[in-house]
Design brief:
Length: about 300
């Protein structure tokens, strides 16, 4: 089964550990400064490829040093980048993540569009082998929201392609820009704070019911350390996360993207929906034990061992 990913695509520079920025004119010593491919869509695509799944990445980024580095990194991971467009008119997005002791992070980003994929690109994309389409960090696709996103999701459904969608915080406050598309999304996987902003509801149960009322058939609200709240059919409830000692949490960057990769990998393996949530928890647990969004997951065997020992 082939999976296509789109969504956030950028370069991450990680600094660890940094609990406070130095004063002007001063410096700070840290253990690590590293550069990684990043963004919700890219992170999930990389992890799916490492889990042995044929993965494509769709997007439009800058034809600059960062963009070519990003494309090269995806290619080295075995991801099909035939539908990743390098555009001379764009600047590839970058972010600086400062990771505190304990794993929490702060983020500084450039204002460039993380993935400039637009409706005119869609007719050029080849999805003939794709069975699942994942939108990672959907608000990153600033040129493919509103009615355009709705029509594209409708077309994916007409092609019998399963649609999964994850969110990301939007500083534009344009939360309503995805609502029209949600009835055509099979699996909606938002984090708690983003789902609260989208629905205006505070509890996972109320959020899930609001999204189900909109027309989303299966909702998974990611709750971090607490687990995930699953709602589908007549079933709903909390599925706890994998227990981890606090001192094992190195960096929470990309934990939600890893959850999506584990969840989708379980769908590809024809697992039940609750089992898919468990796979997501396993991938998230691996992700937070290493610096960087994708460093913690190396292969499928590692994920299976994490799930079995949790």
């Amino acid at each position: 089964m082939h999976v296509a990913c789109t969504g956030g695509a950028l370069i991450d520079v990680l600094v660890h550990p940094l609990n406070q920025l130095p004063l002007p004119g001063k410096s700070a010593l840290v253990e690590d400064i590293q550069i990684f491919p990043g963004g919700c869509g890219v992170n999930t695509a990389i992890l799916l490829a490492r889990l042995g799944i044929d993965t494509h990445f769709l997007g439009r980024i800058g034809n600059d040093r960062l963009g070519r580095f990003l494309l090269n990194q995806l290619d080295q991971e075995g991801i099909d980048v035939e539908n990743l467009i390098l555009d001379d008119t764009l600047q590839t997005k970058a972010s600086l993540l400062t990771v505190r002791t304990g794993g929490e992070y702060s983020l500084i980003r450039t204002s460039a569009v993380g993935n400039a994929l637009n409706k005119d690109d869609l007719s050029l994309l080849d999805l003939k082998d794709v069975q699942i389409m994942h939108f990672g960090g959907i608000y990153s696709l600033k040129n493919l929201l509103g009615e355009d996103l709705k029509l594209y999701c409708m077309e994916l459904k007409n092609q019998e392609i399963v649609v999964t969608m994850d969110t990301v915080w939007t500083h534009d406050k344009n939360w309503e820009a995805i609502i029209a598309a949600l009835p055509y999304v099979d699996f909606f996987l938002p984090s708690l704070d983003e789902a609260q902003a989208l629905t205006g509801q505070s509890t996972p149960q109320a959020i899930a019911r609001s999204l189900r009322k909109i027309g989303v058939p299966i909702v998974v609200v990611k709750l971090g350390r607490e687990g995930a709240y699953l709602s589908y059919g007549t079933q709903e409830g909390l599925i706890p996360a994998c227990p981890l000692p606090h001192n094992k949490v190195v960096d929470t960057t990309g934990a939600g993207d890893a959850f999506c990769a584990g969840f989708i990998a379980a769908l590809v393996a024809d697992k039940t929906i609750p089992e898919a949530v468990t796979w997501g928890h396993g991938a998230g647990a691996l992700a937070v034990q290493a610096l960087g969004a994708t460093t913690g997951i190396r292969n499928r065997k590692q994920l299976m061992m994490q799930i079995q020992t949790s």
